[in-house]
Amino acid sequence: MASPLAVYKLIILYLLDKMDGEIAMDRISSFLLEKGYVNFVSLVKTYAQIEDSGLVRSRNAADRCFYSITPEGRETLRMFREELSSEIRQQADRFLQKEGAVLNNEQAVRAECIPDEGGMYKAVLRVSEKGDPVVEICLRVPDKSVAEEICRKWPEKNEEIYNSLIEKLL
């Protein structure tokens, strides 16, 4: 039987593989903590180890960390998938089904603050549908805090901005 830390890693890999995209760290943490699989200290260790080992990659955006599975992570999951009980897999599947719309929206709406030359920053804003871009906007601003604020507001304002652009252009 696998160690508890190994099981936590496999649950994370299972969620990421089934989602076939990114999931915010706080969403994964909520699932693991609410189901009582892990305590906070073990969870922090798990995240560090799973990323250091190259099983997942992380991306920070709008004050959140998003994880996606790597090919190495998929291979590890394939080799050790049976270490996850069917009950754990069913709970994870129910979580993904219940939260699917929210998780898909988090994947579809992205905002990144990127340093630019000369001390400037770019707020790179995107909305995708089924992997295809619907809108991409790159705003160059003089201050990091301005770019971060734009990125923070993008998830709640993207539809309004998209509709306004369409209205103005037609």
What does this structure look like?
The protein is α+β, with helices and mostly antiparallel strands and 170 residues long. The protein folds into two domains: 4-107, Arc Repressor Mutant, subunit A (Orthogonal Bundle); 108-169, no CATH class. The protein is 58% helix and 24% strand. The chain is built from six helices and six strands. It has helices at 4-19, 25-34, 40-52, 71-80, 86-108, 144-169; strands at residues 23-24, 56-61, 64-69, 109-115, 121-129, 132-141. The strands form two sheets. The protein has a three-stranded antiparallel sheet, with helices on both faces. A three-stranded antiparallel sheet has the order 4-5-6. A hairpin with a 2-residue loop joins β2 and β3 (64-69). α1 (4-19) crosses α3 (40-52). The protein is elongated and about 55 Å long. The relative contact order is 0.13.
- Give me the side-by-side strand order of the main sheet: 1-3-2
* Mean pLDDT, all residues: 87
**Low-pLDDT residue spans:** none
What is the number of strand segments?
Answer: 6
CATH architecture annotation name of the largest domain? Orthogonal Bundle
**Beta-strand percent range:** 15-25%
Major beta sheet summary: 3 strands, antiparallel
Q: How many discrete structural domains?
A: 2
Rounded to the nearest angstrom, the radius of gyration is 18 Å
Q: What is CATH's topology name of the largest domain?
A: Arc Repressor Mutant, subunit A
CATH level 1 name of the largest domain? Mainly Alpha
Morphology call: elongated
CATH superfamily of the largest domain: Winged helix-like DNA-binding domain superfamily/Winged helix DNA-binding domain
